[in-house]
C-alpha cells in the first residue's frame, strides 16, 4: 500500500546544502525575529564554510539595520564575489558605501551595476538620487 502511495506522491527533492535553510532564514527575517534569524544564519554559514550567498545577504541586511554599516558592506562584498553578475548585490554594496560617506566609490559601483542591467530603472534612480544628495 505504501509503495503505491509513494508512486503518486514522490518525496520532495532534498535541497543542496547551500540552500537548505534559506526558507527558514527568510521566514525569521520577514517576521523581524532577527535573533532567531542570526542563529540559523550562523548554523548555515558553518555548514557551508561561509559560501551561502543568501545567508550572507540577509546577515548583511540585519547588520545594516543594527547600524553596523562597515560589517554590512563587507558581507555584501562577499555576496558580490560569490555572484559577480548579480545586480542586487552590487546595489547593496553601493548603498552601504554611500551610507559610509564613500560617495565616489558608491558612484563607481552604481555605474557598474547599471552596466550589468541597463533596463533596471531602480539602479539608475538610486544613482541619480544619491548623486544629487551629495552635490
UniProtKB/TrEMBL annotation:
Gene Ontology biological process terms from the UniProt entry: cilium assembly; protein localization to cilium
Protein name as it appears in the record: Bardet-Biedl syndrome 4 protein
Keywords annotated in UniProt: Repeat, TPR repeat
PANTHER family: BARDET-BIEDL SYNDROME 4 PROTEIN, PTHR44186
Family per similarity comment: Belongs to the BBS4 family.
Organism: Castor canadensis
InterPro entries (alphabetical): TPR-like_helical_dom_sf (IPR011990), TPR_rpt (IPR019734)
GO cellular component terms attached to this protein's record: ciliary basal body
Protein origin, superkingdom: Eukaryota
